[in-house]
Each structure stands twice: as structure tokens, then as C-alpha cells.
Fold this sequence. Notes:
It is a single chain. Strand 9 (about 245-255) and strand 10 (about 260-270) form a beta hairpin. The protein is an alpha/beta fold. Helix content is about 35%, strand content about 25%. The chain has helices at about 10-15, 35-50, 65-80, 120, 140-145, 170-175, 195-205, 210-215, 235, 280-285, 290-300, 315-325, 335-350, 360-370, 385-400, and strands at about 25-30, 55-60, 85-90, 95-100, 105-110, 130, 155-160, 180-185, 245-255, 260-270, 270-280, 305-310, 330, 355, 370-375, 375-380, 415. It is elongated. It starts with 9 loop residues before the first helix and ends with a strand.
Amino acid sequence: MGDKGLQFSPKQLRVLTWWHDPRREAIICDGAVRSGKTFAMGLSFFLWAQAGFDGRQFGICGKTIASVRRNLLAELAPCLRRLGMEVRERRGENLLAVRFRGHENRFLLFGGRDESSAALIQGTTLAGVLLDEAALMPRSFVEQAVARCSVAGSRLWFNCNPEGPRHWFYQEWILKAEEHRALRLHFTMEDNPALTERIRERYRRNYSGTFYRRFVLGEWTAAEGRVYDFFDPDRDAVKTPEGGFSAWRISVDYGTVNPASFGLWGLREGTWYRVREFYYDSRKAGRQRTDAEYAEDLARLAGDRDIQRVIVDPSAASFLEVLRRRGFLAVKADNGVADGIRVTADLLREGRIVICRDCPDCLREMAQYCWEQRGERDTPRKKDDHAMDDLRYFAMDLAADRGEDGFLALAVEREDVF
């Protein structure tokens, strides 16, 4: 390959060479996290495109453009350069121009975050498309991306971690791989030679239940039982640390008929602690509270602390405005449920967010928060989930701070050479 630092497993080598088989029009790589499928597929995609095409456009799709850059290009682009490719990114246009052995092609970056995203790729003509984490994208976006590949010799590249067995991508592409003339390769962590056994064991230890079966075993399995089944409130809740905190935030799930839940979060030595909370159930109290009353409740929860920002249920437009008028920096939360649960679970496991014992309603809901099956998507039961929602809002906001969420990061337009 010309790069002595690269080592590949037999399954990764198959990804690198599958496109030499004229019988195949697509490849699907699914399975465990950290199994080496993303890098091998990205490298193969660029080698295939540069070997067989000149002056063509290709698509690279992720949940967002930021996630494409982070999950795929950050590691892949330097490798392509070491192999002799000239890779130039024009961020303002969301594209890469790649030149190799006399061939130059354009690679357009797309984000498939929601149903409206299909319009972004509509009308584009592509010679091939790579969809990273295809199971997290709306079906309309994936189908639109596939339909754009009308150039002779075009091929389709999919990779993803498993979801539930009724997920549309599992039903329509994985179970029907042969009908689509697709090669389906199922990956485990053993297929990634870069992982040591110690790291593999850490992943096995950190996941349980549905998350273990999907992310470690790579199974398309139904979600069942408690959502955060690894968290034991009696064991894992802590006493509020003594001493000061370096930053404060508040997360809000707003409710009038349904309960309202506010969480006060303090940062200490890299860990965010939920130190206090406010929880109001209008049905039990016998009266609903107004926006102004809730703003007073939030102000009392904040006390004399300097609150960086308040992360608020995005449906609570009037309450957001009341908070802003009172001088709080109030921002809309990301309400992606599936992504939010994944991010929350990871942050809890890693100890980057911690629940204190002075938050009984959050701890009570964590013990009761369960999956239920509705349609093709995993859905947590809509009962006793109000503190769980504000917890999820906070986790997604924190992940956005660290660049781990998949949000689109706005950048100054420039041209970079990797």
C-alpha cells in the first residue's frame, strides 16, 4: 500500500478490494463499535474513486458534516496524503478536491440529520456515495443519496452500528443484500488489529444489556429493560463534593400539565455533578404554574451562582423568552432522543457526568426509565421521563462543547491542505 504503518485484518482487506468484483454494486459493513470498519471503508472508497474516475463528483455522508470530518476525515486525510494523494478541503463549499496519479475528483460532504436533509443532496449527480453511520440517517436521505448515483460504474458504500431488528436499514438493505448485489460484511472488535485485548476488554466491561449486545457483539437486537441498566442509584449516586465548582449550568424539561424538571450542574476537576434539582408535578400539586413562576423557581435554584447557560426544552419557546428577559443565557436543547440516550450513557459510564444524592427525582426516574417497542425505532417509555429529558439535554449540550455530538460546526471559509 505504500504506507508501512498500516496493518489490516482479513476482513478489512476484503473491504479494500471488494470493488474489483464486477458482480457487486454495493458494500455494507455493520457490527461492533471500534471494529475498524469506518477507516477501511473510507480508504477503499478513495482508492476506488481515484483509480476508476477522473473529473467526477462523489458524496460522503454522515449524520452531520461535522461528524464526517471528525469520524472519518480526521484520520483518513493524513493517510491519503502519505499514500501520495493531494487532498484539499474547501470548508466553505463542504468539499474535498483530491488529485492522484493524474486523476482529480471532487468529494462533496453532506449531513443527513433529519427528513429535511434529503433536499440538500437532491439534484446532485454522483459517481458513488459513502454513507457513514447509515442507520442514524432518515430513510428519505439515504434513498435520495442512492438515487443520485447515476454515473456508469457508480457504487454504494454503507457502514453502521446496529440498531433494532425492525429498523428500516436492516430490513431493506442488510436482509436483502443479495437483491441489491451488495457484499455484507459483519465486523467485530477482533477485526480491528489496532485494538489491544486490554482495550477490547474495557469495552466489554463498560457496556451491558442492549448496548452490550449492539455495540460489543454487533447484534441487531431489540431494546428491552431499563434504558440505563448499568446505573445503580444506590451504588452510583454520590454525596455532593465539598468545596467550590468552576462553572454552573442548568438543564430544563418544561411542563405545564406534565411535570417540569430542572437540574443544577456544577463542574469540578473535569466532572459535571448534578448537585440539586427542581421538580414540579402540577397534577399532584393541584395547580399549574406560569412561565413567570417557573422562572422564579429557576432563579432560586441558581441562587447567587454565575450560570453559564440554561439548556431548555426546545418546545418551550415562551419560557425561553422569559428566561432571556431575566438575564439568563437560555439556549434550545437538542431533542434527539436516540442520540441523546447514547451520549448520556457514554458520559455516565465514563464518569464525566455524575448524579448526586440530593437529586431524588432524577434517581427515581433512572430506576424506572425503560424501553418499549413502537414501530421501527427504539423508544423509551413516555412515563417518569422528565428528569431523564433534562439529563439528556444537558448531556447533548456537553457533548457539543467537546465536539462529540455531530453538530455542524460553523467555520471560517478557507482552503486547507491536510
